[in-house]
Amino acid sequence: MSLSIGIVGLPNVGKSTLFNALTRTQNAKAENFPFCTIEPNTAVVPVPDARLAVLADMVHPQQIIPATVEFTDIAGLVRGASKGEGLGNKFLANIRDANAILEVVRCFENADIVHVDGAIDPVRDVSTIESELMLADIEVVEARIARLSKVARSDPKARPELEALEALKDHLYAGKPVRTFPGHDEEALATALQEGRYLSDKPVIYVANVSEDAISADNEHSAALRAHAMSVGAECVRICAAVEQDMSGLDDADRNEFLASYGIAESGLDVIAKTGYSTLGLASFLTAGPKEVRAWTFRRGWKAPKCAGVIHSDFERGFIRAKVVPYEDFVRLGGEAACRDAGLLREEGRDYEMKDGDMVEFLFNV
Question: Are 243 and 215 spatial neighbours (Cβ–Cβ below 8 Å)?
Answer without folding.
Answer: yes
